[in-house]
Amino acid sequence: xxxxxxxxxxxxxxxxxxxxxxxxxxxxxxxxxxxxxxxxxxxxxxxxxxxxxxxxxxxxxxxxxxxxxxxxxxxxxxxxxxxxxxxxxxxxxxxxxxxxxxxxxxxxxxxxxxx
Length: 115
Fold this sequence. Notes:
Radius of gyration: 13 Å
Distance between the termini: 37 Å
Strand content: over 45%
Order of helices and strands: EEEEEEEEEEE
Helix content: under 10%
Number of helices: 0
Structural class: mainly beta
Low-confidence stretches: none
Largest sheet: 7 strands, mixed
Mean pLDDT: 96
């Protein structure tokens, strides 16, 4: 199983980025795909997740209304559209896949938001 994130970068506050998580080696429809983030000195935080089979999604309160998760099942890819970015969104963003628990993790992509 491989999860590969992309799309991170440096952006000014108020800007946008779209992260991608390309999954291979797993049955995409059987898994929930999630985004997590970890800033230096802080605990890992679950940001959002989506059920690939029915499209149900969840968001952390800290990103609700600003981030949107979506899934392209034909491409086995999950996206995280991040708008109105804030400096406190700066972190290493990981995607992960779960059936009953978060079994698989990507390497992460860095998001840095400057003030």
